[in-house]
Amino acid sequence: MESMDPKELWRTGQDQTQPVKCPRCGLPWEPVPTDDHDRVMLEPDFYAPAHTVPPRQRWYVRQGWAVQDDSCPRPSRQCRIAHALAYPEQELPDLWGWLTALREEIPRQAGRLFQRLTSYCPSKDLSLAVSGSRPGLQEYGRLMDDARRDAAPKPRPDYPPKKPPSPPPPDPPTKQAAAPAVHRRPTVLIANRRAANWALENAPWSEKKAAVRVVEQLRAWGYLGAAAQQERYTAVTRGLARAALGDGGRRITVHVADQEGAALIMVLSHRDGPGRLDESFLPSVAALGVLSCGADTDGDEPGNRRWALLEL
What we know:
Layout: H1 6-11, E1 30-33, E2 39-42, E3 48-49, E4 60-62, E5 65-67, E6 78-79, H2 83-86, H3 97-120, H4 134-150, E7 195-201, H5 206-220, H6 227-245, E8 251-259, E9 262-270, H7 281-286, E10 292-296, E11 304-311
Antiparallel strand pairs: 1-2, 3-6, 4-5, 7-8, 8-9, 9-11, 10-11
C-alpha cells in the first residue's frame, strides 16, 4: 500500500469549517500549523510519555503552534504524535536509527565469525557455534582451543634476547694547555670622601663645560681662591677632556674628588674599545704642575680613563 502523506492529503482540499477526517480511515485528525508555514495532522486527544517516543516524532503544541524538541525530556513530560504514525495500514518510518544500524551490523559480525571458524576447522559443523546461544558460545570456545592446540608451534625467539654490541667507549679527553691569565685593570672606586661627577655628550662644547663644572665644584667646597689655581685646574681639565673626546665615544664622564689637600680629576671615555694613546699627552699634562698623572688604555674592557692629581 502506498504511504500516506498527511500534508499532501491536506492540500487535496477539505472544508475547514467541518470536522477534519482522515480520507483513509474516516477518523478525525487535528491539523495544527507549524513554524515553517505548514500543517501537521496530529492524533486528537492523545498524549504519550515523551521519553518513549522517538525524538523526530515528538510534537508539542504551544500557543496554537506545533513544534518539535529533540532534547531529552523529563519522564513526566507528555507529547503529541502524528495521525499517520498511528494509522494501522501505514508503513512505519525508521524510528530508532541506532537500533536499525545495530541490527544490520549483527549479521556482518556473524559472517566474520563464521569465516574465522571455517579457516580453523574446515571439516566441522559450525551451525551451533554461530547460533549465538550459550551452548553455541561454548562450542566456539572449544573449537578455538582445539585449533590452537593442533596448530604448528611457532619458533620461540632466543631468551633472553641477544643484546646488540655496545659502542666503544669514548676517547678520554685530552689535556689542553691552560689559557694565559688575563690581566684585568682594577675598578675605580671613590669612597669615604667628597666627590662629584657629570656625564657629557661628545660635542665641541663639552671640553669647556667640563672645566667649568670642575672649577665651580671645587670653589663650592672652599678651594681655588686664587685666580692662578683656577686657570691651572681649567687647563688640566680641558686637556683630559680633549683627549677623552678624541677617543670617539658617544659620551664622557668627568669625576672630581678631594682628600688630604689634593684633588683628583678623572675623565672616562665610553666606547666599545680602547682609543689611541698620544705619547705627548702625559708630558703635556705633567707640565701643568700636577702631582701625578696617568692614562689607562688596556684593551681588556671598553673605555679609557685619564687622571691627574693636583695640589689644592
